[in-house]
Amino acid sequence: MATARLANVAVFTGLYAFAAGSVAFALFGSDARTSVGADSTIAPIFGAGVAAVAAVGTPAYGHLVTWFALLVGVVVTAMGLLRLGWVADFLPSPVVTGLLAGIGVEILVRQLASVTGIAASQTSTIGRLRGLWDHRSGLDWRTLLIAALVLAAVIGAERIDRRVPGPLIGLILSLAIVASFGLAAGSASHGTVKVVGAVHATFPTFGVPPASFADLRKLIGPVLTVAFVCLVQTAATERVSAEGSGSEPPTGATNQNLAAVGAGSLLAGLSGSFAVNASAPRTAAVANAGGRTQLTGLLAVAGALVVAAFGGPLLKDLPEATLGAILIFVATRLFHFDQMVAVWRYDRFEWALGLLTGGVVAIVGIEQGIVVAVVLALAQRIRLTARPRDSILGRVPGTDHWIPTDVGRTTEQVRGIVAYLVYSPIWYGNASFVRSRVLAAVGRKEYAPVHALVFDANGVADVDYTGATELRRLIENLTAQGISVYVARTSEEVHHDLRLAGLLAPLGVNHIHATVAGAVAAASAAIASESTGSTGSTGPAGPAGSTAATASEGATPPAAAPGPP
Question: CA 70 to CA 147: how far, in whole Å?
Answer without folding.
Answer: 35
